Amino acid sequence: MRVAHRRTTTVRRLTALTLGLLALTGCGGPDDGPDAGQAASATASVTSAPPAPAPDGTAPSSGPSATAARWAGTKQFVQIGDARTAGGRTYLSVRPAEKKPHPQFEAWVIVPGEGPYTEVSMTEDAQVLLSVPLGDAKHPAAYTRAEFVGRLTARPSSDRALLGFDLSFDGQGRVTRVQSLYTP
Fold first, then answer.
1. For residue 162, what pLDDT is reported?
2. I need a labelling partner for 150 at 20 to 30 A (CA). Which of 2, 15, 33, 143 fits?
3. For residues 159 and 152, what is the distance between their CA atoms, to the nearest angstrom?
4. In whole numbers, what is the pLDDT of the chain averaged over residues?
C-alpha cells in the first residue's frame, strides 16, 4: 500500500513538473500566442495605475494632457471602445484591461476593464498590426490607420469589449503602435 502511494505521489509530481515546463517553454511559434514571458506578465500588463478621483469626488480629467502624464513613454494593454479620425488625426477611446493566456489554445483571453474610456491620439506614422478577429490572419499584419478605424467601428460595441490591444506611447502620450491580440 505504501509503494502504491509513493508511485501516485511521484506521478503527480512529474505531471505537475511537466505541465510547468510546458508553460515555461511554450509550444508554438514566435507569433502563435503567449509565451512564457508574456504569460508571466499578462496579469500585470498595465504599467500605471488609473487616476484617482479628484478631491471633490468627480472623475479625473480624460483629456490629452491627463493621458500624456499617465502613459507617456509606456506600453499599455487596453480595450478600445471607439475610434475616429478628425482633422487628419486618429483618436482612440481606451481603458486599461488585462490579458491572460487562453487555457486551451495558443491565444489570449481578454479581461475587460472597468471605468471610463480616455481619448488618446495616434501619431501620423503609428504602426498598426492586426490579428484575427480584427485582422485577416492569425499572425499580426500591417494595416493603415484608416483600415483599422474602419474595421473597428464596423464591429458592434459588444464585440469590441472582447478585443484587446497592446499600445505603445511616445513621450507626449501619443500612440505610436497598436497591436491587436489574437483571440479565437
1. 86
2. 33
3. 9
4. 73
Helix H or strand E encompassing 19: helix 2-25
147-150-154 Cα angle (round to 5) = 145
What CA dihedral angle connects 25, 26, 30 and 31, to 10 degrees?
Answer: -150
- The mean per-residue pLDDT over the stretch 142-155 comes to 96
Write out 33-79 in H/E/C secondary structure: CCCHHHHHHHHHCCCCCCCCCCCCCCCCCCCHHHHHHHHCCCEEEEE
CA distance 143 to 128: 5
Query: Binning pLDDT at 50, 70 and 90, where does residue 163 land?
Result: very high
Q: How far apart are CA 35 and CA 171, in angstroms?
A: 28
- What's the length of the chain? 184
HSE of 30 in the Cβ direction (CA atoms, 13 Å)? 1
Q: Which amino acid is at 155?
A: R
3-state secondary structure of 183: coil
